[in-house]
Amino acid sequence: MGPLYHLLNEQDRIKAVLKSLKLLKRNGKIFVSFINMFANMIFAMKTAPLLVMSSVQSEIEYINAFIENKSFAGDAFTQAFFISQNEVLPFMAQFPLEKLHLFGQEGITSPCEQNIMSQPKEVVDTWMDLCEKVCEREDLLSYSEHLMYIGRKQNEH
Questions:
Q1: Rounded distance, CA 107 to CA 137, Å?
Q2: Rounded-to-integer distance, Cα 127 and Cα 95, Å
Q3: β-strands 29-36, 79-83 pairing
Q4: pTM of this prediction?
Q5: pLDDT tens across 100-134, in order?
């Protein structure tokens, strides 16, 4: 995973994908992980609910970007690039790739992970099966803290 979400500058993210594609064989698959814009909100709900009342400038900027459904690069629970889920496919479309998958890595249970994982194995397994069945639904991507794009390198002419 990474390094795209550790690269705060878009040109650096573009350069990282282009360098990866140079190393990828024809028809090879690339796996690109993003931190979802909603990840910091999930973190706050799980561990630090007072963050929404923060007077720290970077937290205020993050919350404003979240409200406006825009990506954010800077300090939140960590210094990173947080992408709005509606910006993943346009970003990846600039490269010679065929989209194979875009899914939420943690699935719909991420905001309630501790509660789900504390259940008996049969309950956890049933939730994990459900997560797998719906992990690529666009309307549910925001429940995951990380998004995974898988693409196939297109043949060059």
A1: 10
A2: 35
A3: parallel
A4: 0.89
A5: 999 999 999 998 999 999 999 999 999 999 999 99
Written as one letter, the residue type at 74 is G
- Hey, what are 18's tokens? 């282009």
**Of 145, 135, 109, nearest to 37 (Cα)?**
145
For residue 16, give the nearest of 35, 2, 26 by alpha carbon: 2
Residue-wise DSSP of the chain: --SGGG--SHHHHHHHHHHHHHHSPTT-EEEEEEEETTHHHHHHHHH-GGGGG---HHHHHHHHHHHTT--EEEESSSEEEEE-GGGHHHHHTTSSEEEEEEEESS-TTGGGHHHHHTS-HHHHHHHHHHHHHHTT-GGGGGG-SEEEEEEEEPPP-
